[in-house]
């Protein structure tokens, strides 16, 4: 199963909105077939592994990180009939599929066909691998990661807005890898106006080359103040942009953006701002399973206040900025009591270049 999990991870950044799945066929102690799901529309991991095993699958054991599918509401045929036809005698499954059209039905179908089925092997690891998919299936909203680069005293920019570059080049490389693994990146209009980011995922030591897969770039902009020459509106052939606004936005600005091929989405407003709950619901309907928030302190505070963040990743540079007017990682009003502070669970730390990365769940 460890090998199957490693294979499944190869689908990171490409399999979405499908889950990452790996499969291994073992006959008499020897691996005779293996595979993983690369992207929607391509064969599932079980099918690839069984095809590679061929006749050697007869009497073998199939190890798979997720319950084989048994429904027709997708681009590819269901896996359960293929598993039954292959001749394998035993199926070892890490975890059940939370998709309501599967959820235990695959296991039942395999057992009814006379196969021995074992579940729960490396369940925790398998669920962790597909945490975004699982969250999306259960809540119909994307799994949200709030990411920021900051000084040791919690600042993300000087009072004048200067923020490039607080963290090391190694941290930026790490962050761009994260960008290439998520379905979408979100910022507020304040970040666009102050930093003019491209929000593309880039590779190479100098981060000059675009990654093969680009996340959807999202700007929350209730008044449509985004400049038409902003970098986030460029490279539409490689990376699409979605500008989210409200009904109060000027019609002329909508027209100008749409004329440039930019999708403008109007959502309900809350106190003059885009409803973040409505946005998360809309992204979930569009198949966005994972979302990276890379904005400033205000959008960070709004997402946290709305309880829409599942994970925090902070890149902390060994520098002190100081000053009461610097830009903090979380804006808005501070809680009156320490008891109201948000506490991270499952905190993990690691070194990246000269920086320290702190990750935790909410």
Which secondary structure elements does this structure contain, and how are they paired or packed?
Elements: H1 2-8, E1 22-27, E2 30-36, H2 45-53, E3 61-64, H3 79-86, E4 90-93, H4 105-112, E5 116-119, H5 123-129, H6 131-139, E6 143-151, E7 155-157, H7 169-181, E8 184-188, H8 189-195, E9 202-203, E10 209-210, E11 216-220, E12 241-245, H9 251-259, E13 263-266, E14 269-270, E15 273-274, H10 276-285, E16 290-293, H11 297-305, E17 311-317, E18 327-328, E19 345-352, E20 355-361
Parallel strand pairs: 3-4, 4-5, 6-16, 6-17, 8-11, 8-16, 11-12, 12-13
Antiparallel strand pairs: 1-2, 1-3, 7-18, 9-10, 14-15, 17-20, 19-20
Describe the structure.
The protein is α/β, with parallel strands linked by helices. It is 27% helix and 25% strand. The chain is built from 11 helices and 20 strands. The protein has helices spanning 2-8, 45-53, 79-86, 105-112, 123-129, 131-139, 169-181, 189-195, 251-259, 276-285, 297-305, and strands at 22-27, 30-36, 61-64, 90-93, 116-119, 143-151, 155-157, 184-188, 202-203, 209-210, 216-220, 241-245, 263-266, 269-270, 273-274, 290-293, 311-317, 327-328, 345-352, 355-361. The chain has a 9-stranded mixed β-sheet with strand order 13-12-11-8-16-6-17-20-19. Strands 2-1-3-4-5 form a 5-stranded mixed β-sheet. The mean pLDDT is 93.
């Amino acid at each position: 199963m460890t090998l199957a999990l490693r294979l499944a991870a190869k689908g990171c950044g490409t399999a979405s909105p499908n889950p990452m799945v790996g499969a291994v066929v073992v006959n008499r102690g020897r691996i005779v077939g293996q595979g993983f799901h690369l992207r929607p529309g391509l064969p599932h991991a079980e099918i690839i592994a069984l095809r590679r095993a061929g006749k050697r699958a007869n009497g073998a054991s199939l190890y798979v990180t997720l319950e084989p599918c048994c429904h027709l509401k997708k681009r590819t045929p269901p896996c359960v009939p293929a598993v039954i036809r292959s001749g394998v005698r035993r199926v070892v499954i890490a975890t059940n599929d939370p998709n309501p059209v599967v959820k235990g039905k695959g296991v039942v179908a395999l057992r009814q066909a006379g196969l021995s089925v074992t579940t729960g092997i490396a369940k925790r690891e398998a669920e962790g691998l597909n945490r975004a998919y699982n969250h999306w299936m259960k809540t119909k909203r994307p799994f949200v990661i709030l990411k920021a680069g900051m000084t040791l005293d919690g600042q993300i920019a000087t009072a004048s807005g200067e923020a490039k570059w607080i963290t090391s080049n190694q941290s930026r490389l790490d962050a761009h890898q994260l960008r290439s693994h998520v379905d979408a990146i979100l910022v507020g209009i304040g970040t666009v106006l102050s930093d003019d980011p491209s929000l593309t995922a880039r590779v190479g030591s100098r981060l000059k080359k675009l990654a093969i897969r680009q996340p959807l770039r999202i700007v929350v902009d209730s008044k449509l103040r985004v400049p038409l020459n902003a970098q986030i509106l460029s490279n539409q052939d490689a990376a699409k942009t979605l500008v989210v606004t409200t009904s109060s936005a000027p019609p002329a600005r909508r027209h100008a953006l749409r004329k440039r091929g930019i999708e403008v989405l109007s959502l309900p407003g809350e106190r003059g701002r885009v409803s973040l709950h409505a946005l998360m619901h809309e992204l979930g309907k569009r198949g966005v399973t994972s979302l990276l928030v890379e904005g400033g302190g205000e959008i960070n505070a709004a997402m946290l206040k709305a309880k829409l963040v599942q994970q925090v990743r902070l890149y902390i540079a060994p520098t002190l900025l100081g000053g009461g007017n610097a830009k903090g990682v979380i804006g808005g009003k501070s809680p009156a009591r320490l008891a109201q502070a948000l506490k991270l669970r499952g905190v993990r730390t690691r070194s990246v270049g000269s920086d320290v990365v702190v990750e935790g769940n909410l």
